[in-house]
What does this fold into?
Amino acid sequence: MHRILTYFWKYNLPRWSILVIDLLICAFSLTLAFFLRFNFASIPEADLKNFPAGYSILLAVRLCFFLIIKTYKGVIRYTGSKDVARIFIAVASGSAVIFAINIISRYFITGSYIIPHSVVIIDALITMFIMISSRLAMKAIYFENKNPEREKTQVIIYGAGEAGIITKRTLDRDVAVRYKVVGFVDDDEKKKGRSLEGVFIYPVSKLSELVKDNQVETLIISIQNLKPEKKNAIIDECLQLGVRVLNVPPVAKWINGELSFNQIKNINIEELLERDSIRLDTDLINEQLSGKTILITGAAGSIGSELARQCLRFNPKLLVLLDQAESPLHELELEFAEKKTPVNYEVVIGDVRNHERMTNVFNTFRPSVVFHAAAYKHVPMMENNPSESVLTNVLGTKITADLSAEFGVDKFVMISTDKAVNPTNVMGASKRIAEIYTQSLGKSSHTKFVTTRFGNVLGSNGSVIPRFKRQIEAGGPITITHPDITRFFMTIPEACQLVLEAGCMGKGGEIFVFDMGTSVKIVDLARKMIKLSGLQEDRDIKIVYTGLRPGEKLYEELLASAENTLSTHHKQILIGKVREYPFNEVSTFISELIKLFDTQNNALIVSKMKELVPEFISNNSVFEKLDK
It folds into this structure.
C-alpha cells in the first residue's frame, strides 16, 4: 500500500483516467439521485423505462462538457478555487442542457421527460459535491503525507485582514513549507473571537498567552503600512518571547499579484528604525525642479543615487549624474535604463577636484540646480589621510560652488553631516570648512547656497548595519568600538526627501538641520539584529569591543552648544543659526589650506584647519597634541 501511495504521489495520474473516474462519479450520482428522489422505494415504470436512455444522454452530456471545460486537466493534489469553479460550470452547464433535452422530449418527441427534473437537480448537487470533495480530500491526504502536522512549526499571523488570509493560504498550499497557522492576532476588537478559515482571531493582548500555550516559534506580520511604533512594539514582545518574526512584503512586490512563501522574509533592522512617512510640499518641490537641469555630484553614492531617484518624480528637463566611481555609476545607469524613465539623464564620469573637467560639465549642461553630495566621509580613513580630505571635501566643494556662482546656478544644495558640529575628527572639520565657504560665498552671489546637515543614514556605504549583517552571516563576532557609543539614524529615502524639501525652501545662506529622532545605542542595535536573525548573543554570536577609532565620538551632535535653531513649516526641518564669516577672509584662508596639500604634512594641514574651526578638538587621535 505504501508503495502504491508513493507511486501515486510521485507521478500524476493520466488525464484519461481522471476523466473515467469523473464519469463513474456521474453514473453513481445519477443512481443515488433516483434513489433519493423516490425515498429508496421502487422507481415508477415510466421513469424506469427511460433509465438506459437517460443514463446514456447524461453521461454523454457530462463527457462533452468535461472535455470542453477541461476539468480533467487539473493536477488533483494542487486543486484550487479555479479547479472548483471549472467543475461547477461544467456540471451546471451539463444539467442545463439536460433540462433543455427534457423539454424537447416532453413536448416534441416522446411526451415524457427522459430524466425527471427533480432527479437532474439532485444529481447535479451530488456530482458537484463528490467531484469537488474527492479532489480536496486527495489534496489534503497528499499534503499530510508530504508534510505531517506533527512536524510543522506553529505560526501566528499578525493581521486578520485580506493580506492575513492570503498569507495563510500561501502557507497552506506550499508543500515545502512546514508551518501550521494556530491563530490570528489583530488590533480590531470587533474581530475578537471570530475565525478565518477555521483559525480563531485573538486580540494582541493575548499574544504572550497564545505563544506559550501553542509553543509558537514564528509570527508573520501581514498588515500592510503598519505604523513603525506599532511594528516595533509587536517585534519587541516577540523577541522577548523568543519568537522569530517574518514580514509579508508590500502588495506591489508580489509576483504577478500573488504572494509566494519565498517572498516572506525576516524583518530588517532598517524597518524598526523607520519613522512615519514624511509629508512633502510636492507643489514647492515641483515648482523648483520641474523642467530644470539638475546636476548631482557623487551621484553613484548612497545619498546621491537616491536623490537622483527622488528627482525623477518631479520631471526635470535633464538629470546630470556625475561621479568618479565608474562601476557604481554604471550600475545606476543600468537601473535607470531598466526603469525606462521618461526623464532625460546624462551619466558623466568626473572628479569634483578637477577644475577643467567640472568647468566643461557646467558649460555643457548649464544646470539650474546643483545637489553636491560628493565627499569623503569615512572618519578613520580621513583621520589618516587629511590631505585627501581637504582636496575632496574642501577643494571639491569650492570648485563646484565657484562654478555654480559663475554659471548662474539658481540653487546649490550641499549635503553635510552632523560630524561638522563641534568636530573631533578631520572629516567633520573638512565638512564644516566646506559649510563655511559656501555660506560666505552666497553673500556675494546670485546663487542661493543652502546646506543640509544630518546624521547616519541606514544602509549607506560604510554604515554599521551592512557591516553587522556581514559579521552575523559569517558567524561573528560583531565588533563595536565602545559599549556606550550612540548614533542618530535616518533612512536614505527619508534623508533625501528632506534634502529636496529643505533645498527648495532655502532662500540662501541657511544650514538646515534635520530632526533625527532619538539616538540609538549601537550595542542595542547589534543585539536586536542578532535576535532578528534567530540567534542568541554569546551562544551563537559574540559582541567584541575594539575601542574608539581615531577621531570617533561617543555621541554625535546636530547643533553646537553655541547655536540655536529656528523652526520652519516642516516639523522635521530646522534652521541652525551659526557663526558667519566674511567671504574674503574665508577665501584667502581656504586657498592657503589647499596649497598645503603639496606639502603632504598632515600636522601642518590639521593645524591650519583648527585655525578656521576653533571648536575642532581632536579625540582619540594623533592630532590631540595640536590642541595642547
